[in-house]
């Protein structure tokens, strides 16, 4: 059974750096063509893809957020970490991680992050 | 504004058939396979359709998908009250080199 769970702060202040961890089970990021993505959804708005890390360490970022994002993986711990710098209230959203394999996404339930002073 | 265009709302009565459209471009739907998800607030989105028209095991055959050119559709037949949820399409975009999503369609069972 594939499961993913996002964890991190629920509240961050403007200009702070957000660090989110995706802990997963049921698959290995060392398997060929296995990837993990981060996606967010502001309240009442559409989903937005943020970043993706591949089994071979390749990283892909949303062009609009590339300068603020870093995605890393720890294969031994079955974790993927996303950091987003210079947080702003417009970054308030539910953040999801998802396994990306065989052109399908398996999602975690998401974690809500509010940016407010 | 989403890269993929969906109607914001759809509705039907129990037993009816409803369809939800998803419009994209040559860099996504036109060249890649489409997935459809059901989202209930507070829970993980559930995969309903992959590879344009394939159902994962456990998904009722009331759910079906199709694609033509740069548009895709999700059809739900024999509508049930439990189908009331948000539905969105997702596909890889070769220009973005990332995933793109529809804005979501809120389905109401009247």
Summed up:
Chain A is an all-beta fold and 117 residues long. Chain A has strands at residues 3-7, 11-12, 18-25, 35-41, 48-54, 59-61, 69-74, 79-84, 93-101, 104-107, 111-115.
Structure description:
The complex is a heterodimer of chains A (117) and B (110). Helices cover 0% and strands 53% of the residues of chain A. Chain A is mainly β and 117 residues long. In chain A, a hairpin with a 6-residue loop joins β4 and β5. Chain A is globular and about 40 Å long. The model of chain A has no long low-confidence stretch (mean pLDDT 96). Chain B is mostly beta strands and 110 residues long. Helix content of chain B is 0%, strand content 45%. The N and C termini of chain B lie far apart (28 Å). The chains are: A mainly beta (117), B mainly beta (110).
Give the distance, in angstroms, between the N- and C-terminal Cα atoms of chain A. 39 Å
Note the total helix count of chain B. 0
Say what oligomer this is: heterodimer
Shape of chain A: globular
Estimated share of beta-strand residues of chain A:
over 45%
Q: Could you tell me the radius of gyration of chain B in angstroms?
A: 13 Å
Proportion of residues in helical segments of chain B: under 10%
End-to-end Cα distance of chain B = 28 Å
- SSE pattern of chain B, N- to C-terminal: EEEEEEEEE
Number of beta-strand segments of chain B: 9
List segments of chain B where confidence is low: pLDDT < 50 over at least 5 consecutive residues. none
Structural class of chain A: mainly beta
User: How many strands, what sense, and barrel or not for the largest sheet of chain B?
Assistant: 6 strands, mixed
- Average pLDDT of chain B works out at 95
Count interface residues per chain for the largest interface: A-B, 22 and 25 residues
Shape of chain B: globular
Largest sheet of chain A: 7 strands, mixed
**Number of beta-strand segments of chain A:** 11
Determine Rg of chain A (CA atoms, Å): 13 Å
């Amino acid at each position: 059974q594939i499961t993913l769970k996002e964890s991190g702060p629920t509240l961050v202040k403007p200009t702070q750096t957000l660090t989110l961890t995706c802990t997963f089970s049921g698959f290995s990021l060392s398997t060929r063509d296995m990837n993990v993505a981060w996606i967010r959804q502001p309240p009442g708005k559409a989903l937005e893809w943020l970043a993706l890390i591949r089994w071979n360490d390749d990283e892909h970022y949303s062009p609009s957020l590339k300068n603020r994002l870093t995605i890393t993986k720890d294969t031994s711990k079955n974790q993927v970490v996303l950091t987003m710098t210079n947080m702003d209230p417009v970054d308030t959203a539910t953040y999801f991680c998802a396994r990306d394999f065989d052109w399908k996404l398996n999602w975690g339930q998401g974690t809500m992050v509010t940016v407010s002073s | 504004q989403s890269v993929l265009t969906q109607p914001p709302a759809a509705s039907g009565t129990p037993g009816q058939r409803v369809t939800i459209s998803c419009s994209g471009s040559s860099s996504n739907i036109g060249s890649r396979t489409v997935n459809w998800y059901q989202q209930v607030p507070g829970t993980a989105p559930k995969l309903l359709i992959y590879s344009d028209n394939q159902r994962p095991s456990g998904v009722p055959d009331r759910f079906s998908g199709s694609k033509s050119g740069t548009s895709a559709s999700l059809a739900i037949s024999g509508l049930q009250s439990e189908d009331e949820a948000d539905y969105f399409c997702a596909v890889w975009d070769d220009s973005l080199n990332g995933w793109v999503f529809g804005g979501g369609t809120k389905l109401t069972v009247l």
